[in-house]
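Sequence and structure are kept together here, with a separate record for every protein. A complete record is shown below as an example:
=====
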Amino acid sequence: MWLFKSKKAELTDDELLMQFKSTKDLQYLEDLFNRYIHLVYGTCLRYLKVREKSQDAVIDIFEKVAAKLKEHDVTQFKAWLYALTRNHCLMLIRKESKAVEQPMDLFSQNLHNNIMDFQLDYHPYDIDGIEEERKQQLKECLEKLKVLQKECLNLFFFQEMCYKEISSHLKITLEKVKSNLQNGKRNLRYCMEKQHERG
C-alpha cells in the first residue's frame, strides 16, 4: 500500500537527509521514512483507532515531512518525526471532536510520551492511559525546570522546531539548545520518577 522502496539502506539518517536536501530526490526521503513507517503507523493506530484512517494519516504525514524538510534543517530525525506524528494525530482528533484543548495540556501530554524511546512499539504512559494525577504531576515537574530548559522542550516537542530554529528563536548557540533539551528531559524524567515513587 504505502510502503516505500529502499534505495540507500546503508546510509545513516543524517546522510539520507543530506542527500535529499542536496539532490531533491524524493527517493532518499522515502528510504528514510520507510525506516520508521511501522512506528508512525503504530502511533497513528493507537490514536485514531481505525486502520484506514491510520493508513491515510501515514501518507499525509509523509507529505508533511517532505514539505517541512524542504524549508527547515532537522536534526535527530526520529524524535522530530515522532513529535510531528503525534501532533498530526492530535490535530485530527481535535478536528473530529471539535474540542479545544488548552495548549499546556496538549504540551504536557505530548512531551510525556516523547520522553519515552520512539523505537518502542508501546509507551507505558500513552496519552489514552494517563490518569489525571499523572498529568498534574507532569505539569508540576515542568514548572520546576529552569526557564531555558522548559522553553527548549516546548519549542522542540510542541512547536516542532528543529535545533537551528530554536537557536535562532531564543538567540542561543546550537550547543546550548542541545544541552538544555538533554538536561530538561533528564530532569523531567527524574522528577516524574520521584513523583511516582511518592505516589
